[in-house]
Amino acid sequence: MKKIVLPLILILFGTTILSGCTKDEILNHYNNVVQSAGSIELTGNSSLQGKKDNGIDDYTGTYQADYKAYTGTEYLFGGTSIKREAGKNIAVTCTLEATSGTAKVFWISGADEAVTLLETTGTYNDTITLPDGGNYIGIECEDFTGNIEMNIE
User: Fold this and answer.
1) pTM score, two decimals?
2) Fewer Cβ atoms within 10 Å of its own Cβ: the N or the C terminal residue of the chain?
3) Which domain of life is it from (predicted)?
């Protein structure tokens, strides 16, 4: 019985709040909730190996890091927006330099397999068109020593 009460209260509360809203306003509210939930997936600043400066939203900004024998995955930019205010295109510029170990910069969208943008050492510069839903750019490292510089606009 307790499991049913809270969802019913939330439904009634949501219906009351949204009852005077237009369809577009309801979709905007929904998009904001979905985007907030998607931000949780990003690696928190205190857990990052480097320094991240956010841009106009969670999809953009800069990231610089010097790694020392790091193994792990950092989700740097992205979210779950249904309709991103700044549009569906992001320009990604990234330089990765490895001294030892392996690293790959990736883009993952929805339930699709991750796409490797850059691996070990090199430069990536391209525009990505984000489909609706979850999109994240990150780096996966295995005993990686090296550095990364990333700029997303």
Assistant:
1) 0.75
2) N
3) Bacteria
